[in-house]
Amino acid sequence: MPRIQIGSWANDAVNWLRDNLDWLFNLITTVLNGLYNAIHTVLAAPEPLILAGILAVLAWWLRGLPAAVLTFLGFALIDSIQQWNPTIESLSLVLVACLITVVVAVPLGIWAARSKVVGGVLRPVLDLMQTMPAMVYLIPGILFFGLGVVPGIVATIVFSMPPAVRMTELGIRQVDEELVEAAEAFGTHPRRTLLRVQLPLALPTIMAGINQVIMLALSMVVIAGMVGGGGLGASVYNAISSVNVALGAEAGLAVVILAMYLDRMTGALNQRVSPLGRRALAKAQAALGGWKFLHWRPATSVAMVGVVVLALLAGGMSYLNKGGGAGSGGNGKPITLGYVNWDEGKATTYLWKEILEERGYKPKVQALEAGPLFAGQARGDIDVQTNAWLPVTHAEYWNKYKDKLEDLGTWYDKTSLEIAVPSYVKDVKTLDDLKGKAAEFGGRITGIEPGAGEMKILKDKVLKDYGLGGEYQVQESSTASMLSELDRALHNKKPIAVTLWSPHWAYDKYQLTKLKDPKGSFGSGDGLHLIGRKGFSKDLPEVAKWMKNFHLDEKQLTSLENDIKSAGEGHEQDGVRTWLKKNPGLVEKIAPSAHASYAKGKDAGKAPHIGYPAWDEGIATAYLWKNVLEKRGYRPDLRNLDIGPMWTGLSTGQIDVETDGWLPVAQKQYWDKYQNDLTDVGAWYDKTSLEIAVPSYVKDVKSMDDLRKHKDEFKGKIIGIEPGTGEMQRLKSTVLPAYGLTDFEVTSAGTSAMLAELDRAYHKKEPIAVVLWSPHWAYSKYQLTKLADPQGTWGANNQIKTLANKSFPDKFPEFHGWLKNWKMTPDELGSLEQDIQDAGKGNEDKGVEKWIDDHPGIVDKMAPVK
């Protein structure tokens, strides 16, 4: 039988509606958002216990004193388990959905009751609405209305409407026909007959239908949490996806309390608004006898006074508790961050939430499946996500939506996808080894979320390439469920195969084997990308710039994940804050503020004398510390000196500190002479080397021995630096004699003259031998060969140390502490030297400022102030 393309027709119909009725969906979105925001603002304004009191007064009015007490205790419990805000969000969503449902459903039920044709048409439509799986409504909801509360409200309305229509129709039809005929016989207009006879008598049945609407709406609200509906649905979804028993129990308990309250109150409302209900209530109270006081219910006017008094109290408290505005920078701009509930996604999302809040923005996070997340971004409902695995894992979503998205760059590279097994499973090292061993693994590969790109690659490609399709079943679950199953299997020493990826903390916690993929079916690995909606960079240029420069290494990422896991579900930002305390200055580095203000140091106002030689690393670090100290409120004084006077000044206290001591070799003679008057603060760079260098175009000169053989080519000359340096003295006393080069002339005009001579010779492609050292920016600018020293005459490698006068730690304790913990990498030092070179002589401060701007957070890292 030919296949009927119902699915394709439905897809085409949805696409046509989306493309041609977008104006209508935007209008509906605006109206529903407005209603939701209004109701949520009212409910969220009072303090939790004040609102619990208001709800308790309503319960007292509707059901009596025991119900009021239980209501207050129930909502107080919700507040104590930190589920108050999600509960209010869910209650707001239920009220909006039920309000619209009742407004639409009751007239439809009346119309169906009065017209058999309308009733006959509506019945199959209601059957379809009521029996269609609830989650199916979320799919067109996302496409038409995007993510958030609106698709949840719309899906809830559709799912919960049938009982209201059916019960209204049933209630109207069950009204005694003789009563209706009597009204008509007296000449009553049909409208008045409906309002004065049929509706009052049908009200108990209609209220029963409304009660069912509320119950169905609440159940759908939880499902709507999967598409960003928020509230208790989001809490339940997070608990399921992370297998968090504690959060699941708390969120589930809040749902139960809210459902019981709404059910009991709507059930009792009929007794207050229906004449028949009021008569039945009066009879019941008369029969209570001595227990009547427990079921006494205040008059409507008394209950209204109680509600108004509590509402006024709540309003006054809200006014008094108003806080200040948002921090500087973001000016309260909202940003929505979406994430799939994977460890690296959750970690980086909450990291950015914390950073953006510090910068004055109002970020909101939403946990979603991969499909809804990309679709929501394409619609513009989600501003940015941090965990797109490209170009492989999320290729399907990227190819579908890339015209409506922005790739903000890679913040982590490179990942891998794999199947992993416990290390105690022998003889299974590759994917090929899985073949024929299905019985050992229960014929199952434990997977993660069905929408994950890795799952699609596994099913569509990996299983086929390795012939595992008929042998293994892929069990879809969630990341947390997979990890729970892995933990259980490892505890019992049972074989298990799971979908995993790198980086992942599981490889640190467990002994696992990554199965090799010789056919490359999983691809070559992904980068973790930040993806923004189209127009994100234009709308939020500052945030986009921060995110484009954002990078974390594996150590930073795994430690962040660990701190968040330790903080527990619902306390992710506490984990982020713990991590940031361990990484001072990182916020400024990731998101540099436009007008950074620097805290003053404890010794602000002091004026240390900093000496430096005219060497690049000496100039660079001296001016760097000058800039940093000025930002901390110090008044440093720089002094440029030759090596000999520098050490003499340090020993006498005329110079407090210098940052360019090459020890234990290059400046050994000075250290041996003055060490009793000095303090070794510590090494900030390790390790250096001294050498002779020649241009790479000079062939056959690779070592010091080769230099002797080509003496004429170099005109018997070596271009040196300052005569007082330890390198020059060692060259003359040790290196040249060892290699028979004493007949070479060594010039000593200074470092600048040597570099100028090197540049001139390099430009003319002439041979030249110069005294150099590593690190030095000349190796980046020119193609040079370091001449090997097979006899080791240059001695052991040096460290670059900070040296100070003996009294320095006591005179400048804060500065001394900063210098003791200070380190620089070769890249940092090279880029600092280059920026100073580019700024030019006399503009060293400008070069340092540029470097600091390019290294946000470096001031707090070098000179932390609590």
From TrEMBL:
Listed GO biological process terms: choline transport; glycine betaine transport
Transmembrane segments: 21-43, 49-78, 90-114, 134-159, 201-227, 239-262, 302-320
InterPro entries given in the database record: ABC_Gly_betaine_transp_sub-bd, MetI-like, MetI-like_sf
Alphabetic keyword roster: Cell membrane, Membrane, Transmembrane, Transmembrane helix, Transport
Keyword hit for Nuclease: no
Molecular function GO labels: amine transmembrane transporter activity; carnitine transmembrane transporter activity
SUPFAM superfamilies noted in UniProt: MetI-like (SSF161098), Periplasmic binding protein-like II (SSF53850)
Residues of the ABC transmembrane type-1 domain: 87-266
CDD domains per record: PBP2_OpuAC_like, TM_PBP2
Membrane topology term: Multi-pass membrane protein
Keyword DNA-binding: no
GO-annotated cellular components: ATP-binding cassette (ABC) transporter complex
Subcellular location: Cell membrane; Membrane
Recorded family membership: In the N-terminal section; belongs to the binding-protein-dependent transport system permease family.
Name used for this protein in its record: Glycine/betaine ABC transporter permease
Lineage of producing organism: Bacteria, Bacillati, Actinomycetota, Actinomycetes, Kitasatosporales
